[in-house]
Amino acid sequence: MSSISLRQIKKSFAGLTILRSVDMEIEKGEFIVILGPSGCGKSTLLNVIAGLDDCDDGQIVIDGRDVIGLEPSQRGLAMVFQSYALFPAMTVRRNLSFGMEIAGTPKAEIVDKVAWVAKLLQIEPLLERKPSQLSGGQRQRVAIGRALVRSSSICLFDEPLSNLDAKLRAETRVELKQLHETLKSTMIYVTHDQIEAMTMADRVAVMHKGKVEQFAHPQSIYEKPASLFVAGFVGSPAMNFLDGRLDGAGRFITGDIAIDVSAYAFEAKQGAGEAGLGVRCEDIPLAEGGVPGRLPATLAFTELLGADALGWFDCLGKRFSPRLGIEAARAMKGEVGLTFDMGKASLFSKDTEQRL
Amino acid sequence: MSIAVATPIAIRKKPFAPQAARIGLYVFLTVSAIFFLLPLLLVAMNSLKPLEEIRQGNLLAFPVNPNFDAWVTAWKTACTGLDCNGVRPGVWNSIRITIPAVVISTLAGALNGYALAQWKSRHANLLMLLVTVGLFIPYQAMLYPTVKILSNVGLFRTYAGIVFVHVIYGLPYTTLLFRNFYVGVPDEISRAARMEGASFLRTFWSIILPISTNILVVVAILQFTGIWNDYLLGLIFAGNDNLPMTVQLTNIVNNARGAANPNVNMAAALITAIPTLVVYFLSGRYFVRGIAAGAVKG
């Protein structure tokens, strides 16, 4: 277990800014997921932490020790690569023991450690095989084994599940989470898959254009996104948005309709100005006629998802997709009324794109 | 080639067409094989004839009394200038020069190529361009400066000198071949080795070299053939004590004293050619694999 703090990490390459000042405090034993679209700098950040890439500016402190300029092996961390990167000419056993051989670990200890990790990951029957004789899932286990075998206090993962099929990915996700519970090492996991982020992370860092937009518990990222980008990126189906203006007196004006936002918990003192209103599909209840704040909507089509359904409505010139029960969705047609649950909605400033 | 490509279309047109295409292919291959083998066969045949049979004027006839007398002469007693020891001393010189030169230029090329494939910056491309230019400069243009440099350091016309020259002249070629192979090896493998604490040299030795068998064989064969068959550099840089076989062979063939002995000349030529033939036969499998691997990975 180790704590890591990243302080104002900056990196640019060939005139392109990849990381523009990243700050993060990671506590001992945390499972951190770095989530973001491709090109947001998340893999670069991981390589910088690992020491495989240098950063232009900033500090990386692991357990109180500044590790800038140290080789990866001196930083006490291990890494699982996206392509697994097993050593092709070596058997699984040698893949696992190679790092310890270099470190000069005594033979008996190497044997014990390899046996321990092989048992932990159930790869004992594979030990004498070459990587080319393994399936994708088995290679992945060996790659994880190689990262765990030296009992490094920090484990880095670079999209380790993206080459697996959907079923195997779901299984390995659970296993990785259990491994973390058992080993209690600090783990940093990079992915673009929000389901992995939501299910595995103690905290998620959402990155966008080289900056951390929000660093929080996955549930609060879902419920209280800190910026328009996070709101749009996290969640499937995507959040529903409405453009308008706050009048400073507890109302959100869009067109000739005013929505009462007095139930909304503002982060700071409520001001007036251009704003965006975002609501998750679960927070758009249908409303009978006569309910205040009811918005007239026309059903375009419904998507049946098995457990529940999504209704796609045209409302105020936008598309809204409230989550519906299967029966209700089947029976629905024509004109209905929608309301927004303002206790769970999000308001963003149009200027700063930040949460209000 | 064109026949093989045309086959699928032929299948669609006529049921018996593939058969015809196949026959055509074999005819073409047989003719090509005869074309390339005929000179070798002629040389082999005449090397087995006594001198009288050749003097009778029919070079193309099969030997009437085949024997290895000419081979023995070529090996032991044919005159190369003043000495009459055959090509035998040249064999040992050629081996002594070729083996270290092949091993060093191949391994150094592998190390260079790996370093260049790892190093990603504009300077790397510039350096690569310079290496490629090194390939295109004709030997003749570099001869005089090389002679000057070697005499200044006392290596001109020495054993170490000739090995050194072969290694240096081979490096652009071997570096380029290995670099192109290693560019196709995923970067993450080297990065994973670095995470495990392996140094650059350790990574090269323990992880990269073991996956390079095919390209190693290809480069080693090309270097072996090139260095074994070299005449110019051997003539200039080896010095009288280290003259390789090719130089001895020319001396035998061009020997002004006495009458021409075509059978001995041909036997000497064959003896000189045998090692390269053997190398190709023994490693043909790897050679084809390595060439194909390089082709796919670019």
Can you give a write-up of this model?
- The complex is a heterodimer of chains A (356) and B (298).
- Chain A has 356 residues and is an alpha+beta fold.
- Chain A has 2 domains: 4-225, P-loop containing nucleotide triphosphate hydrolases (Rossmann fold), CATH 3.40.50; 237-349, RNA polymerase II/Efflux pump adaptor protein, barrel-sandwich hybrid domain (OB fold (Dihydrolipoamide Acetyltransferase, E2P), Beta Barrel).
- Helix content of chain A is 26%, strand content 33%.
- Chain A has 9 helices and 21 strands.
- In chain A, strand 1 and strand 2 (16-26) form a beta hairpin.
- Chain A is elongated.
- The mean pLDDT of chain A is 89.
- Chain B has helices at residues 2-13, 17-47, 51-55, 69-77, 88-118, 122-136, 139-152, 159-183, 187-195, 200-208, 213-229, 232-237, 245-253, 262-297.
- The relative contact order of chain B is 0.13.
- Chain B is globular, with a radius of gyration of 24 Å.
- Chain B has 2 domains: 2-77, no CATH class; 88-297, MetI-like fold.
- The chains are: A alpha+beta (356), B mainly alpha (298).
- At the A-B interface, strand 6 and helix 2 of A face helix 9 and helix 10 of B.
Can you tag this structure with a few keywords?
heterodimer, A: 356 residues, alpha+beta, Rossmann fold, OB fold (Dihydrolipoamide Acetyltransferase, E2P), 2 domains, 6-stranded mixed beta sheet, 6-stranded antiparallel beta sheet, 33% strand, B: 298 residues, mainly alpha, MetI-like fold, 14 helices, disordered N terminus, disordered C terminus
Calculate the terminal CA-CA distance of chain A, rounded to whole Å. 37 Å
Instruction: Determine the number of helices of chain B (DSSP H or I, runs of at least 4 residues).
Output: 14
Radius of gyration of chain B: 24 Å
Helix content of chain A: 25-40%
CATH architecture of the largest domain in chain A: 3-Layer(aba) Sandwich
For the record, what is the CATH homologous superfamily label of the largest domain in chain A? P-loop containing nucleotide triphosphate hydrolases
Q: Report the end-to-end length of chain B measured between terminal Cα atoms.
A: 21 Å
Total tally of structural domains of chain B: 2
